[in-house]
Amino acid sequence: MDIAVLSDIHGNYVALKQCLEYAVSHNINTFFFLGDYAGELAYPERTMQLLYDLSKEHQCYFIKGNKEEYWLKYRADGERGWKDKNSASGALLYTYNSLTDRDLEFFEQLQPVQEIVIDKMPAIIICHGSPNNVSEKLLPNDMRTIDIMNSVNASIILCGHTHIQQKIAHKERCILNPGSVGIPFFSEGKTQFLILHGKDGIWSEEFISLRYDVDRVINDMHEVKLYEHAPYWSLITEYILQKGHISHGKILSRVMELCKEETGDCVWPDIPEKYWAQAVEENYIDKQIKLF
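Now predict its structure.
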């Protein structure tokens, strides 16, 4: 049997549709989704509808990512703290305001980790970050990663969160990361996922990278005015979609450093836009990308 494993869609319904069409055309009927369904990109309702429609026709397993925790915590805290026209939180606020009660209820019932056994094949653990924490990154050459692999009974851990396709093997166990459907790093503008092949009691992996209409995604961002809601965050997003050689996290870390160096303190999301501008310039992000 074959299973499509998809993670970190981040609202990229264009890329998601491409991945799903590829999987279905290869007679795949089982799908694992590893969290972070919405965020950063335009029309999150289109992503959610694709997922709802797919789950009516195919066997789908969904788990919670850190983004889902963001939406739920923001609702629980009384929808306070995030700001529009703010590079740190504007995209979060845009996405949250686009989500429906149905979406939030769907996120509410998701578990952060599942152990799955299908057709008497070896057990698989699916999670977003790690089996212990949705925001933890399982990285190669890291003793924490090895410790986690040793702590589980399943031979395979499927995780996302890093947005990088990779396999980490240790003894008879491995971690497989399908990369990101929506905003993959180091993908040369391609969308990414994973097909898990099961035969004769053995799982084997096939990493998939596909070309898709990146320009449409960027046009959508302009159409809904994401560059006004989250100016530099959206600029970085566009650069990642086209180039893939930087990350929001790297830029954000530098932004916080610059803010602390000059002001002595920096509290997210109250970060002046000038520090975003400086960090973007330092990282040689294309000047021809226009914010507005």
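Residues 45 and 100 are 8 Å apart (CA to CA).
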